[in-house]
Design a protein that fits this description.
Layout: E1 3-6, H1 19-25, H2 33-54, E2 61-67, E3 73-74, E4 80-90, E5 96-97, E6 103-105, E7 110-113, H3 115-118, E8 123-132, H4 141-156, H5 167-173
Antiparallel strand pairs: 1-2, 2-8, 3-7, 4-5, 4-8, 6-7
Helix pairs in contact: 1-2, 2-4, 4-5
Organism: Spirosoma endbachense
Protein name: Phage gp6-like head-tail connector protein
Length: 181
């Protein structure tokens, strides 16, 4: 498995539920800037929890995956949208782009290097640029419902120091947990 990192600069999640809808969901004033900001923060926290629980990107963003050589690799996602480029480094040289004819990739995140890649000698590092996660319009309904459950629970129990995640949210997220390979 390659080590995955967000491309820089790291930007916060684009909320999967807009501020006004989140305010309506937790029954607060949608016209209040402070309340709307709090609702958006709750949505972003719920999205972060969902990604952390599933151990993979769920909300579309761009990533780099780093590895040591051209060997079959698995990107850290079950929903890879695109692999935009693969670069390699030899010794202390600059990054060089690998031709697209030297590898194949699948939406499951599997990358298979072809003989053209293996013929390159002295490779010390590879970098895969890819986009993973669901675009807002493609977000599965159960993930959206988990975000709603979490923001409702966290808002209702905001004074409680022991903010537990509802078991329903964990149950709904089980099918999205990245298996340990």
């Amino acid at each position: 498995m390659l080590t995955a990192r967000l491309k820089q600069p790291t930007v916060p999640f684009e909320p999967c539920i807009d501020g006004a809808t989140a305010c309506d969901w937790i029954r607060i004033d949608r016209d209040s800037v402070a309340d709307k900001g709090q609702a958006v923060s709750l949505v972003q926290a719920a999205m972060a929890w969902a990604e952390s629980f599933s151990k993979q990107p769920l909300f579309a963003r761009d990533y780099y995956g780093y590895g040591d050589s051209f060997c079959s690799a698995q990107l850290h996602s079950l929903n890879v949208q695109t692999v935009s480029a693969i670069h390699y480094q030899q010794e202390t040289a600059d990054w060089v782009e690998l031709p697209t004819t030297a590898y194949r990739w699948q939406e499951t995140g599997e990358i298979q290097f072809l003989p053209a890649a293996y013929s390159i000698r002295g490779v010390t590092r590879i970098r895969v640029s890819y986009r993973a996660g669901y675009e807002p319009a493609e977000l599965p309904a159960d993930i959206l419902q988990v975000v709603r459950l979490l923001i409702g629970r966290w808002y209702d129990n905001r004074a409680d120091e022991r903010k537990q995640v509802p078991s329903q949210a964990e149950w709904m997220m089980e099918s999205y947990v990245l298996p340990i390979l």
